[in-house]
Amino acid sequence: MNWLTEVLGTQKPIIAMCHFPALPGDPSYDKQGGITKVVEEARRELLSLQEGGVDAIMFSNEFSLPYLTKVRTETVAAMARIIGQLMPEIKVPFGVNVLWDPAASLDLAVATGAKFVREIFTGVYASDFGLWNTNCGEVIRHQHAIGAENVKLLFNIVPEAAKYLGERSITEIARTTVFNNQPDALCVSGLTAGSETSLQTLQLVKEAVPGTIIFANTGVRLDNLEQQLSVADGAVVGTAFKADGVFHNRVDVQRVKAFMDRVRAFRANLK
Asked: What residue ranges carry the coiled-coil annotation (predicted)?
């Protein structure tokens, strides 16, 4: 038995994204509505996802566009405030993702009791955000220094809107990432949020590191979930749960229910 059952309660789990609106300091922040409006929007999304039956939730500052690779204090403070206010209503395991700052994600996890984080922990990239460098050794030491050693680390090895600076195959990246860093899971993504994860890439990664949990990180939808979950050990889902499948829209609880009904049927057939 791997940690998925212990932490998330099931095999082939669906981690739903709860996307926070723009936060204080972000270019699109609604100063008139203020943090109260952000909390209410986040509450609406959380309750819709839980009513739809998802297995776990990942809170992220998805609308802090354009992203920073070292976030500011106000971002983490605002996210902690939001999650703290929602805590009495959170009924499923949850994780956090402070885009794109792994140390800040771990800080937020410790502050809120999150079970997992997803981040770009390794690699050097040419990206929409400039030259994107990482320091996994420093981050892992920080994890242990702040008492976050039990927080599960989901390594995104195909960053959205970025390309590895050196020419390396996905199988090379997967093997060395696992050997050097011992991640709790690898996340395989498409080009942007909502873009379908290549099934061939998922298969290559799964074959390269067969003992490692693999998540399909973007683009899992009602029409491809059986195909994606036949290879991946679980999925992170955001856009597919939004009204009309549009990234900027609110969560549509009926879409969530239809999706999770299919997931449960798929899981039942595995037994």
From this structure: none
The number of domains in the chain is: 1
Distances (CA, A) of 155 to 119, 182, 189, 225: 6, 10, 11, 21
In a domain, 230, yes or no: yes
**CA–CA gap between residue 26 and residue 250 (Å, rounded):** 19
Domain assignment of residue 249, yes or no: yes
CB half-sphere exposure, 57, CA atoms < 13 A: 27
Using only the alpha carbons of the chain, give its radius of gyration.
17
Question: Crossing angle, helix 136-145 and helix 170-181, to 10 degrees?
Answer: 40
- Residue 84 is classified by DSSP as H
Residue 114: inside a domain: yes
- Identify the domain containing residue 43 by its residue range: 11-270
Q: Are strands 56-60 and 130-132 parallel, antiparallel or unpaired?
A: unpaired
**DSSP bridge partners of 14:** 235
Burial track 41-51 (b if 16+ CB lie within 10 A, e otherwise): bbeebbbbbbe
CATH number of 212's domain: 3.20.20.70
Does residue 5 fall inside a structural domain? no
Distance between CA 6 and CA 229 in Å, rounded?
A: 19
Looking at 99-165, list the stretches that DSSP marks H as alpha helix, in order from N- to C-terminal side: 102-112, 136-145
The pair of three-digit structure tokens given for residue 109, joined into one six-digit string: 């996890």
> What is the value of pTM for the model shown?
0.97
* Cis amide linkage into residue 100, ω under 30° from 0: yes
- Find the length of the chain: 271
Contact (CB, 8 A) for 16 and 54 = yes
Place of tokens 């739809």: 52
Q: Could you read off the pLDDT of 171-228 as tens digits, one per residue?
A: 999 999 999 999 999 999 875 566 778 899 999 999 999 999 999 999 999 999 999 9
